[in-house]
């Protein structure tokens, strides 16, 4: 599990990274909200630990921007402030948990593990990207009042793309996540589903495109 820690106090950041690393987490640290947003947008992290009061962007601003991009990485807020209003604001911004400073290392680890367990079982009902919506309950994609139904595999491909917008997803990643490690599925099957999805997105006029990146994979982007 890889965790991003954003904390503007260098000594506390060093301590947090040490705590995570000796407890078998991979961890990266940043000291401001601008870097936190940039790192988190990479999609490489399983969880975020965000201080609320940071230079550049505060933790709440960072998380709001991530959620607007449909980046659903679980997040835990740290703050020296204990007002109920700030906790509510943090949770409303999309945080999964909130921990007040000072805190015990054991409590931080327990909350972090619980948050990551919930991530493995949680799927939002709607995924959104550039005005388009994917309903995870009905397997339908929507834009501007128009709807297209997706097959089971088309939905799984689209779900992976919308969970990782603007990030290249390799053909091998699609096959592993959808069909499993030991499948005999040919890579051309992924291309067929991508082709079908492109037609359905075009049919509803969705302002997105699935672009092929040679020798890399597919990426969901804004587009006409």
Structural account:
By secondary structure, the protein is an alpha/beta fold. It contains 8 helices and 11 strands. The strands form 3 sheets. It has a 5-stranded parallel β-sheet with strand order 2-1-3-4-5, with helices on both faces. The chain has a 4-stranded antiparallel β-sheet with strand order 6-7-8-9, covered by helices on one side. A hairpin with a 2-residue loop joins strand 8 (140-143) and strand 9 (146-149). The longest helix is centred in the middle third of the chain and has 17 residues, at 105-121. The model has no long low-confidence stretch (mean pLDDT 88).
Question: Nearest-angstrom radius of gyration?
Answer: 19 Å
Helix/strand class = alpha/beta
Query: Which range does the strand content fall in?
Result: 15-25%
SSE order: EHEHEHEHEHEEEEHHHEE
CATH superfamily of the largest domain: Response regulator
CATH topology of the largest domain: Rossmann fold
Which tags fit this structure?
alpha/beta; Rossmann fold; 4-stranded antiparallel sheet; 2 domains; 8 helices; 224 residues; Arc Repressor Mutant, subunit A
Give a short summary of the structure:
The protein has 224 residues and is an alpha/beta fold. The chain contains eight helices and eleven strands.
